[in-house]
Structure formats: structure tokens, C-alpha cells
Design brief:
single chain, alpha+beta, 4-stranded antiparallel β-sheet, 16% strand, elongated
Amino acid sequence: MDVISEIRRLPTLSKAELIEMWQQYFHNTPVCIRKEYYVRQIAHRLQELTYGGLDSSVKEKIEHIANLNKNAMKGLPLPGTRLIKEYKGIEYTVTVHNDGFEYLGIKYPALSTVAKRITGQRISGKRFFGLE
């Protein structure tokens, strides 16, 4: 199979033909409704099968960057950041992680949970730590 010719042919195929190819290459039922999506994904898969996929170390780096971006998109600092807040004369330190926040050695899923633990009140974690 000439992969370049096959990729050039993809946009000319009907959506039904693309779905059939999708099932052949991905072994599942597609969920997207846009023909362009099928064309792009199948083209990528053809190249991957012909030329090889990404090395596992590259995949790990991409995963790491994606996790960093998740925090940034939520308006949160990057993992490893230490948030320091003085409240009622006491200094509190929280460490940001990819999957939550650490306070006094305990991991919390949300910054607001940490803020509630400190204040005893339901409060926005971002507001409490000055991130808004």
C-alpha cells in the first residue's frame, strides 16, 4: 500500500466508507460526526502503522505537558508550586500537584477543600489563596 496515495484518497471517500476504515484501524465504533475528523485520524493512523508511532519516552513527555496544561487551563499554578497563606496569624503552606493539593502531608482533590480545612468554612480555594 502506498500510504501517500491512500491518504490523498481519504477526503474523496464517503462518510460510510471512512467509518468502515475507522473500524478496521481502530477496532471500535467512532463517536464523531464530522467527516474531516475521520480523515485526519485515519491519515494519522496510516502514517503511524507505516512509519512507526511515538517512542514511549515522547509519549510520557506529552502526557506530562498535558497535565501541566490542565492546571493552567483551570487557572491554577503549575505542579510543584507552593502556595503560602497567612490566616489568623498562622502561615499555611499547600503544594500543588497534577492531581490535587497537599497540605500537612494529606492530599486533597480541590483547593477549596484545603481552604475549608483551614478556615472551617466553605470558601473558594482560589480566592482564599489569592489566585483570583
